[in-house]
Amino acid sequence: MNILLTGATGYIGKRLLPALLANGHEVTCIVRDRQRFQHETGGRLKIIEADLLNSDSLTIPGPETDVAFYLIHSMGAAIDKFEELEIRSANNFIQAIKGSKVKQIIYLSGLQNPDAASPHLQSRLMVEQLLMNSGVPCTTLRAGIIVGSGSASFEIIRDLSEKLPVMVTPRWLDIRCQPIAVRDVINSLMAAMLNPEATGRILDIGGPDVLSYKQMLLQYAEVRGLKRFIIVLPLMTPRLSSYWLYFVTSTSYKLAVNLVNSMKVEVICRENAIESLTGKQPLTYKEAIAMAFDTLPGTM
């Protein structure tokens, strides 16, 4: 297939690209800065330098494109206006592909809670709606915390568990989520391509474990052979929680604020579609952690 890949320098894009090439696909990547793109080009891989926030810079390749992956997220770019950035980027993308004959858009979104939504999850939902109503057949895959080396959420779990033998934590650590291994996300994205069972649908994908953030920290420590103690402090405010993540972990303050706002909302799969989509049983949370340390660069 001929694939258009946005977000190729992002966490998922950098892992999806080698999988696409290994499966024999022709890939065109849209990147904001060619210098940040650490991959040999030529042959079955082409590069377009463009900014999706600037419609004048955006040129979509001709009618031969089969699938367009939309992997653009702005959560780390701002605290209070990243929703505007996400909507503008999505609208520019939709306008650009209308002149082509893309057969399918695939968007990686976030698991939703119908009873509550953070600004981050609300922005993902708005982008979903824009893409699903674009006139181009669209598949939306919703995932929660992605477990793998380099994932922002996973790196926070790693930093906290590795650095703090005793943690005094905010009460949102008792909130539940459904983590998923990065390998299973990549497999799901690949399985969705021109799949009639996935086209036009919104599918939740997750691992087999539903865990609180406290359980995730303790299970990480168990896999790593670390002895850790966690004390939940019910009075820690979201602002203090954000500073706590910022000072203890390697995350930026903007990303810490947005992550805290999202972590206060329980997000689990309403109906987990991963096995029917990929035909494979997803990795457990502990298996995903172990794999994150065993995986070599450039592999999944």
What do these coordinates show?
There is one protein chain. With 300 residues, this protein is an alpha/beta fold. The chain has a domain at 2-144 and 178-206 and 268-278: 3-Layer(aba) Sandwich (Rossmann fold), CATH 3.40.50.720. The chain contains 10 helices and 13 strands. The protein has helices spanning 11-22, 82-97, 119-132, 152-163, 182-191, 213-224, 238-248, 253-263, 274-278, 285-294, and strands at 2-6, 26-31, 45-49, 67-70, 104-110, 138-143, 146-147, 166-170, 176-177, 180-181, 202-204, 211-212, 229-233. The strands form 4 sheets. It has a 7-stranded parallel beta sheet, sandwiched between helices. Helix 4 (152-163) packs across helix 6 and helix 7 crosses helix 8. The longest helix has 16 residues, at 82-97. Mean pLDDT is 82; it is low at 296-300.
User: For this entry, what is the oligomeric state of its chains?
Assistant: single chain
Structure classification = alpha/beta
Instruction: Please outline the major beta sheet.
Output: 7 strands, parallel
Kindly identify the CATH topology of the domain at 2-144 and 178-206 and 268-278: Rossmann fold
Trace the largest sheet across and list its strands.
3-2-1-4-5-6-11
| Radius of gyration from the alpha-carbon trace, in angstroms | 19 Å
The CATH C-level name of the domain at 2-144 and 178-206 and 268-278 is: Alpha Beta
Question: What percent strand?
Answer: 15-25%
Which geometry do the CA atoms define?
globular
Distance between the termini: 21 Å
